[in-house]
Amino acid sequence: MEKIVEQALLYDFYGELLTDHQKQVYEDVVFNDLSLSEVAEDRGISRQGVHDMIKRCNRILQDYEEKLGLVEKFVKTQEKVQEIHRLTQEYRKTEDKELVFKIEEISAQISRL
Amino acid sequence: MEKIVEQALLYDFYGELLTDHQKQVYEDVVFNDLSLSEVAEDRGISRQGVHDMIKRCNRILQDYEEKLGLVEKFVKTQEKVQEIHRLTQEYRKTEDKELVFKIEEISAQISRL
Fold first, then answer.
1. Is the domain of B15 the same as that of B27?
2. Does the ipTM surpass 0.85?
3. Which of A9, B8, B12, B81 has its CA 20 to 30 A from that of A36?
4. Do you know which Gene3D superfamilies this protein is assigned to (chains A, B) (predicted)?
C-alpha cells in the first residue's frame, strides 16, 4: 500500500486516540502538506519538535494497528465488496446464476473477517 | 443489544488495549463466569478490587468505542452481509434478477460504512 494511503487509513481509524495538539500538527504536515518549518512557526514549537511529534504519532498509530489490526480487516472487507460489485456487474451482462452463488460465498467470507 | 454480547464485542475489538492483568481478570469474571470472590482469591486481590477493575475495564472499552465507533460499524456491516445472504437465498428460489441489483446496492452501502 502507498505510504500516504496507509497513513490516511491509520489516521482515519485511530486518529481520535491522539491528543488534539497531536492531531492538528499531524494533519498540517501529513494531509495539508505544510512544511515542518511552517508548522513549527504556527504552533510556536521547534522544527525538530514537529519532526519528533510526527514520528511519534506514526509510532502510536502503528502500535494500535499492531494490537487491533482494524485497517487490515477494513482493507480486506473492501476487497471483498469490490469483488461482489464486480460479480453483480458481470451478472448484468451474462445473467449467469452461478455468479449469485459466488456472491453468497463472498458475503459469508466478509462476515468471518 | 444484550449486555453480554455488547461486552463481548467491545472486548473483541479493544481487549488488546487492556493490560494482561486486566484481561485475565476481565475474562474470568465476564466470560468464564467465575465469582468476584473466586477471582479475588486466585489473583490475591480484594473482592472490591476485582469489582473496581471490571468497572474500570468496562469504562475503558466503552471510551474506545465512543472515540472509534468500530463495534457499531462492525454490527452494521454484519447486518448488511446478512441482508445479502437473505437476498441470495431468495434468488435461489425465485431467480428474480432484480434481487441482484439490490445486492449491488447493499455492497455499495457496505463500502461506504
1. yes
2. no
3. A9
4. Winged helix-like DNA-binding domain superfamily/Winged helix DNA-binding domain
Q: CA nearest B71 in A: which residue? A: A70
Q: Are B49 and B18 within one domain?
A: yes
Give yes or no for a contact between B11 and B25, defined as CB atoms under 8 angstroms apart.
no
Output the CA–CA distances (angstroms, integers) from residue B106 to A15, A73, B48, B76, B87, in the order listed.
28, 19, 48, 11, 10
Q: How far apart are CA A17 and CA A40, in angstroms?
A: 22
A interface test, pick of B17, B19, B81, B82 with most A CB neighbours within 10 Å: B81
First-to-last alpha carbon distance for chain B, in angstroms, is: 20
pLDDT band at B31 (very low <50, low <70, confident <90, very high): very high
Nearest-neighbour CA in chain B from A30: distance (Å): 21
Rounded mean pLDDT of chain B? Answer: 93
Cβ neighbours of A82 in B, within 8 Å: 111
CATH number, domain containing residue B35: 1.10.10.10
* Structural domain count of chain B: 2
Domain that holds residue B56: 3-68
Of the CA atoms within 13 Å of residue B3, those in its CB half-sphere come to: 2
pLDDT at B1 over 80: no
pLDDT at residue A33 is higher than 80:
yes
Residues A76 and A64 in one domain: no
pLDDT tens-digit profile of A42-51?
999 999 999 9
Determine whether the interchain pair A104/B88 forms a contact, defined as Cβ–Cβ distance below 8 Å: yes
